[in-house]
Amino acid sequence: MPEPAAGAVHPDLRTGEPSPWLRRILRGLLGQERRFWVLVVGVGLISGLGAVALLAVLRFTQHLFWQSNTEHLLEGALASPGWRRFLVPVLGGGLVTLVSLLVGQPLRGHGTAGIIESIWVKSGRLPFPRALLRGFVSIIAVALGAPLGREGALLQTGAASGSALSGWLRLGPGQARVLVACGASAGIASAYNVPIGAALFGLEVLLGSFALELFGPIVVSCVVATLVSRTLIADHPSYVIPHYALVHPRELLLALLLGVLVGGASALYVRGINVTSDLLDRVPAWLAPFMPLVAMTLVGVTALAGPYLLGNGYDSVNMALHGTLPLTLLLLLPLAKLAVTSLCAGAGVPGGLFTPSLFFGALLGGAFGMGVEEVLPGGVPSGAYALLGMGAVLAGTTHASVSAVLMIFEMTGDYDLILPLMLAAVVAAVVSRRLEPESLYTSVLVRRDVRVPASVPHWLREEGVRSLLSPITQRVPPSAPFNEVVLLLLEQPPGVDLYVTDTEGRLLGVITLDALKGHLPDHSLLQATVAADVMDSGVQPITPDLSLAEVASRLGHTELERLPVVDSGRRLLGSLSKGDLLKRGRF
What we know:
CATH superfamily of the largest domain: Clc chloride channel
Low-confidence stretches: 1-18, 456-461
Helix content: 55-70%
Distance between the termini: 38 Å
Number of helices: 25
CATH architecture of the largest domain: Orthogonal Bundle
Shape: elongated
Largest sheet: 3 strands, mixed
């Protein structure tokens, strides 16, 4: 269906003519730029309302099955008899299996990774009905005890709304990608009341760029979605905790140590998710649809011993932040959570991995804090280290330290710990990246051979001219006889020229075989001809300080296949060819 022209309007159903007010409205909205900003606001509004609806479903389901009056099920699960703790998760697994069989395909796959793939590979296209179904099933499964995050459903519905709107109005791929990122970011913002952190998450993780032209749409969508959720749900930080503050400079060193430890744990978290998914990918095709039921049955078995692993783990994180969990649970529950989360995600239970990573980090940080209290009493309580652990694991698993710091700050509202939080997050991200080069989201795509952009700016990753140099195997002095020059040129590979240098290695000129053919001197003068007579001294060489974009421009304005590279003193360093630049360069 073609896109309507700027002045087109829908006719009145009775007269066939557009009404004046509709004409005025459409005339203002149908301009491409204005229409895009209206859609940005619309995506934020839809994401906010979708979050309100999905969280209402979460509360209703948990109240129905766990007799819990809030969205946090631990209290109801602790009061439930053993048979309920076992059967309710099994029911959740059965629901996922049933839906998978009905739609004819599994609901597995990490939602955020799919959104990144949609943005960078599929021009912002997401299957709208499947995304909505996956989001709805995800929120039900989490309410029934799946050890995954509720944010998965909110990201899916937000991103799907952006994709659907861009598809219905036939927007270009650029605007479609931005709208999908706006929807996903707005979903996070409304899920956790974190408009700033969610906006930066969209830029840093989904779009891989802090470009100013992307910042405005993301921020607007997150603000609108957060305003809706604050109006209809609640207006307070996700975690209401005691006030923690830095009391001694040594705590910065402890935050540094925590960042190193949690960075290693973050790499373990990513590796555990991926290894489990790879193992479960090998199950027979006939068994795959039933794996959610198997996984949730095992979750039910663990709940018989204790329900701390059920659901997204908000209550356990809150207890760690308040310092009320015993050290034994702080040490055991993170690994147990990683095991059941990996099992369910790999088996095909839809849900987010964001909130389980907060659980993992908060409890590890709390355990570290209790150890510090034993060795160095008088510092901040263990709950402060739980907060640092949350931020460090979030940065380590996503490789996005900026958005991680701001998200944790907005979730807790504790600004006085911002310095150790920043330090722990950056160190954890560096350590995790060194141990596990791909993040929690990009690792899924790399296993499927989907290429995603680097989150580090290209000019920091750029190898530079020196790394692309080819060594010079032959060079001649300006006094080299003509016969020697010809023989050396004939021995060179195709496209390789001969360089004339002085005794100190400074470039004097270039001799090419093609140019030599058309300028042969009289035969009687061949014996007197030397390299200086036939070289081209007008070739402009490359210097190592040039960017690869500048090198590409210079190669585009010459007929030579390669250009010489010289230092500031014009001493010949090597050569760089068009082929090497295109194969290995980033510009």
